Amino acid sequence: MSEALTVPQGPPSVRLGLKENWPQFALLVLINAFVGGMVGIERTVVPLIGAEEFKVGSTTLVVSFIVSFGVVKACANLISGQFADKWGRKRVLVLGWLVGLPVPFIIIWAPSWEWVIAANALLGINQGLAWSMTVIMKIDLVGPKSRGLAVGLNEFAGYLAVGVTAYLTGYLASEYGLRPAPIYLGVAYAVLGAALSILLVRDTREHVRLETAAHVRQASPISFREIFVLTSFRDRNLFAASQAGLVNNLNDGMSWGIFPLFFASFGLAIDRIGILKAVYPATWGILQVATGPLSDRWGRKGLIVAGMWVQAAGLFLTGATTHFEWWLVGSLLLGLGTAMVYPSLIAAVSDASHPSWRARSLSVYRFWRDLGYAIGALSAGLIADRFGLSAAIASIAALTFLSGAVVAVFMRERAAGSVDLAQQASRPAE
């Protein structure tokens, strides 16, 4: 779990390992819980605000707030690694929180659906910058041997907060209405997250320099264009991870927008919708405490393939049934599968990236992954408007199963810390 590494070039106080850096690591876990909570305020109530308060009749238009969120978050992810390497991780984290501060206030006071869409564009920037930095900084702190654990704990905090907040907003909405009471949670998250990031977080660039000193020096610097091509298409492991990440968040974007409408179409009460919307991310979050370290021990590929197929099973079950109990099982399966996939994918990308450009490689992966929100919400909305909500869920389930098959064919298991392609980036992968 702990990896102490020192070299003459680094400051004597800088060491790699969870034990050596636990105060900052724990602080970043807490901050990412607030980042996740910002998304959680929208999981249950915002689709219903569009359908019930603003009377948006088209499913595609209802989920348009997720499209704006996904596109902007994907682009923010893409530039976050560049900014992190140039400005430092802390500055990017603080910037993310400053952009996110207005979001809950806009949702509370929005006079039309267009204002909610605009708020979600700001939320996308907040998530793309702040969540990216919390995971990158944790990976910086622990070193190569504990990447899965670091990612698992980061995502545990974020998605447990998503689930808890989804439940709380559903309860508050059932008692006090869709606005403003449920959204007050977002105000607290934004203020606390920004304050802790400004006052207590320390940058981790010295940890990156320390780890870089222990790696084979690259013959020449690698450009961002080369990193983009490498991560997106050229390396078979990075390609497999990027497409799986995209499809994983594609089905999450679909469930975010479609599930509340699907459950409500059968007359399910909003508090019970809140339970279902909480179970999925809470299961996803809690189990990553186990699946992250397991990916360090068992390898990444098996967990990713199995996880995508478990997600597909959960989606098929949800779309094919009409009762709360079966939907609950489907949500549990979806959470279990996502917990298997999420930390394993980030760790797999980290394994294949040199420390000197790991942040940029992760930003490219997260670009493709979070573009899935927009693609999933838009495609599911179009399918739902033409063929119905159940057909939309089944279509995304089939695509999720296919994505797992792509990982099974293309990905090769690679030991943590073995960055063969990163050390010879100019040569195509075999």
UniProtKB/TrEMBL annotation:
Superkingdom of origin organism: Bacteria
One Pfam family hit: MFS_1
Keywords of the record: Cell membrane, Membrane, Transmembrane, Transmembrane helix, Transport
GO cellular component, one term: plasma membrane
Membrane-related topology note: Multi-pass membrane protein
Localization annotation: Cell membrane
Parts of the chain that traverse the membrane: 25-41, 61-80, 92-110, 116-137, 149-169, 181-201, 302-320, 326-346, 390-411
GO MF entries: transmembrane transporter activity
Major facilitator superfamily (MFS) profile domain mapped to chain residues: 25-415
First-listed, main subcellular location of the protein, grouped into a coarse class: membrane
Protein name (database record): MFS transporter
